[in-house]
Amino acid sequence: MFTPFPPCNPFGSALEYWTDAFQRTVLFWDVMRKRGNQAIEHTEAGKPPVLSFRNEVVIDGRTLERPCNYMLLRILPSPESGVRIDPAKRPFVVVDPRAGHGPGIGGFKPDSQIGNALEAGHPCYFISFLPDPVPGQTLGDVASAEAAFIERVHAMHPDAEGKPCVIANCQAGWAVMAMGAIHPDLMGPMIIAGSPLSYWAGVKGQNPMRYTGGLSGGTWLTALASDLGNGRFDGSLLVSNFERLNPSHTYWSKPYNLYSKIDTEERRYLEFEKWWSGFFLLNGEEIQAITDELFVGNKLSTGQIVTREGQRVDLRNIRSPILVFASFGDNITPPQQALGWILDLYESVDDIRSREQTIIYNLHHDIGHLGIFVSGKIARKETAEFVENIDLVDLLPPGLYELIIEPKRPDNAESDLIVGSYITRFEPRTLDDIRAFGVNDEQDDLRFATVARVSDVNLGLYDLFLRPWVRAMTTETSAQTLRRMSSHRAKYYMLSDANPAMRAVGAMAESVRENRHPVSDDNPYLKAQNEISEGIVRALDAWRDMRDAAYETIFMNTYGSPMLQALVGLHRPGAEALPRRVRDEAHEALVRKRLDEIRSRVAQGGSLEALVRIMIHVRESGQGVDERGFQMLRKIGKERRDEERISLDRFREILKEQVFLMELDRERALAALPKLMPTEQSRRTVVEAARQLLDVRGTAHPDELARLRQIKQLLDLEKEVPARATEASGSTHRQAGCRDEVARSGFDGVGGEGGV
Fold it and tell me: Among candidates 321, 323, 395, which has minimal Cα distance to 633?
């Protein structure tokens, strides 16, 4: 007999569900109580970093000539972890954002940025900060301290292959980029994760946070908040902006996830909330500079920031390889904001190369902003690959690349050269590839430029008419009272044992845990509950979309008004939203001098220079680079004698020079190959090494083989170099013999742990 509904006991199912619902409710509020107690304890302890790793202070920024509230910590692996640090490996420095919350998000669990670096045996350091800024501290003081920290790390590892790699999260990204522009020779590769570098950029209908400054009339509210805080800005105000972005997550999905998984989710929830509930302060001057010059002014990506010492912060001065990690699921820093600075500063990839810069980007499809730093999946895949291939990043020729990570397959050629479970490759890209993600048109940029002008006007009016009164009425007592009354802080104190009513919740929770009766997964009332929850999420998302659409419409109509644009001096012939790229004649002269010097060394060098030239010529097809070629070079280099090995930095200089030589005068550079390899033995060795490098990705392309034959004719190698054997037995012996021959022949390979 057909029944339209599955058989069930309505009374029994209801009793089971409501018993579970009551118990879940008690346990949920008990977790809220623990969260409040945890926040109070963390505050009373001075809000130390939420790192899950042992650490020790190396430098306290308060002791520097320009004091600030930053510290350099050395990460110490626990004895039971079995991790061994190799001091000869490149050190890593993780910098967390100071954007309302405290430090530690880059290492608050084992699967993290710090955890990956330690697991690979790298010395690891962490730049932390204290809850309260030093009086009078500026962004310049912070930048000076961070530069001193990285310099100290480099000095502590004199034998390491390569300068320290710096991983900068969110707000820390633009700070590290600015520091790299002022101190171009300070760092090794820079990994910039989820950092807004071009704040105006975005896509209509998708990135509403960039409208915030315009909708509030500019940065005068930031100045007001700082004055009400007696010269200090409350970080909880920044957190509130983040929470309002996604109301369905903040007000429903996040607490509901805890409620629905109360038996298993408590620990993870409290670990995260320990960081989320720690609100830090910034000096008014710091936050004002951030909002005026970066968020509203968008001056970093256009080279308009000038330090107090008169130095222009031009990101084109950076000499360290830059790896930008962003995600399409990030509603705080979308890829357009993470990569838009490239379009603002450069006319073409050739322009990037002329600056001897290497820029790499890696894009995730759906991970959220915080997931970039805290997701275990990201840590085990993207971050792990960044760490494993950091030396290869440091050796890439100047240009623009996309880093692509794919799972390792059994049929991959030379699979033994692939480290870990993924294979990483670097594919050449153009500026058009960046533009394809979405860019502002001229009218969009004009609107944001109007916001910047209006902001200056409103801030000036506030300075003139309101600021003297606000400062006169504000005391340190009133500022502290205002911070305590903040809703973000109050919710933790009200739901802690400081509230007598919550103490009863704790007693009830103990009884519930002793008599826990969870509902079965097939309970019809539980299914109805989940469906209602999904409906609430959809309703809140719909409201969010309508709100964001209204915000965008108001912004576009207000700041797109010709009248308003005319009032601020932008609606006139020749007016431009972004500063016009002007010729840097001094830089052009330096480039010409540098290229002339390179041309003069066309016949200088040895086997390594020759191999690089050959590979550039043979791989002219524009294929990308993957880790197997690098690992093959490293394998060859390790077989060289110690006195014949060169450092990664030296190899990088050689690589850049040979790239320029081939671009400037390919015919002359190739014609000089016989002078670089005077003996037949050295020529055969280098050609065979080139063949091995071609074969690491599988069977070489016919065009590549044709170019290799041209090289052999040029080198007068009439006898064919044996092709790579396909049989397993023969291939192994042949390659081993070749590597021995390479090692005996005087090949100037790079060796050592971090060498090629």
Answer: 395
| Residue-level pLDDT at 690 | 85
The DSSP-derived string for 329-360 is T-SSS-HHHHHHHHHHH-SSHHHHHHTT-EEE
CA distance 156 to 259: 48
Both tokens of 97, joined, read 């954002």
Give me the long-range contacts of 60-66 (CB less than 8 A, separation at least 24): 61/129, 61/134, 61/145, 61/149, 62/134, 64/144, 64/145, 64/148, 66/140, 66/141, 66/144, 66/145
Q: Which of 190-199, 561-570, 601-610, 733-742 has the lowest mean pLDDT?
A: 733-742
- Phi, psi of 259, deg, nearest 5: -60, -45
| CA-to-CA separations, 422 to 336, 391, 416, 632, 700, in angstroms, rounded | 27, 17, 12, 17, 22
Q: Residue 111's pLDDT is what? A: 87
**Minimum mean pLDDT range among 243-257, 377-391, 723-737:** 723-737
**How far apart (Å, rounded) are the C-alpha atoms in residues 609 and 613?**
6
Q: Where are the domains of the chain?
A: 54-200+298-440, 585-744
Question: Per-residue pLDDT for 279 more than 90?
Answer: yes
| pTM for the structure as a whole | 0.89
Choice among 470-479, 635-644, 694-703 with the minimum mean pLDDT: 635-644
Residue 712 · residue 721 · CB < 8 Å? yes
Q: How confident is the model at residue 607, as a pLDDT?
A: 87
Q: What are the start-end ranges of the H helices in 644-701? A: 648-664, 666-671, 673-676, 680-695
Asked if 735 and 143 touch (Cβ cutoff 8 Å), the reply is no
Which residue type sits at 655?
L
Residue 595 CA neighbour count, 13 Å, CB half: 15
In the numeric block, which tokens belong to residue 605? Answer: 């060098």
Q: What would the mean pLDDT of 646-661 be, rounded to a whole number?
A: 80
| 229, two tokens | 């805080």
Strands (E), 556-640: 625-626
β partners of residue 75: 55
Question: Domain 54-200+298-440 sits in which CATH superfamily?
Answer: Alpha/Beta hydrolase fold, catalytic domain (3.40.50.1820)
Task: Kindly write down the DSSP assignment for every residue of 258-324, as one continuous string.
Answer: HHHTHHHHHHHHHHHHHHHT-B-EEEHHHHHHIIIIIIIT--TTTT--B-TTS-B--GGG--S-EEE
Give ∠ CA 393-676-391 in degrees, rounded to 5.
10
* Mean pLDDT, residues 740-755 taken together: 38
Please give the backbone phi and psi of residue 88, each rounded to the nearest 5 degrees, phi first: -80, -10
Q: Band of the pLDDT at 168, cuts 50, 70, 90?
A: very high
**Overall average pLDDT of the 537-551 stretch:** 97
- Cβ-based neighbours of 414, under 8 Å, separated by 6 or more: 628, 632, 695, 696, 697
Asked whether the predicted pLDDT for residue 423 surpasses 80, the reply is yes
Cα separation of 334 and 363, whole Å?
10
